Amino acid sequence: MNKKYKEIIEKAKYCLHCKNKPCSKSCPLSNNIPEFIEHIKNGNIDEAYKVLSETTIFEPICGRICPHESQCEGSYVRGIKGQSVTIGKLEAFVGDYILDSNFKNNDICKSNGKKIAIIGSGPAGLAASYLLSNNGYIVDIYEKHSKLGGLLRYGIPEFRLDKKLLDNWLETFILNDNIRIYNNKELGKDFNIEDLKQKYDYIILAFGANISNKMNIPGEEKDFVYGGNELLEYKDMPDFTGKNVVVNGGGNVAIDSAREIKKLGAKNVIIVYRRSKIEMPAERKEIKEAEKEGIEFLFKTNILEILDNKIECIKTELIQKEGENRKAPVNIEGSEFSLDVDYIVMAIGSHPNTKVIDSLELKTNKWGYLEIDENYKTSDNKIYAVGDLTGARQTVAWAARSGFECAKQIINDTH
Ligand SMILES: Cc1cc2nc3c(=O)[nH]c(=O)nc-3n(C[C@H](O)[C@H](O)[C@H](O)COP(=O)(O)OP(=O)(O)OC[C@H]3O[C@@H](n4cnc5c(N)ncnc54)[C@H](O)[C@@H]3O)c2cc1C
Ligand code: SF4
Question: What's the pTM?
Answer without folding.
Answer: 0.95
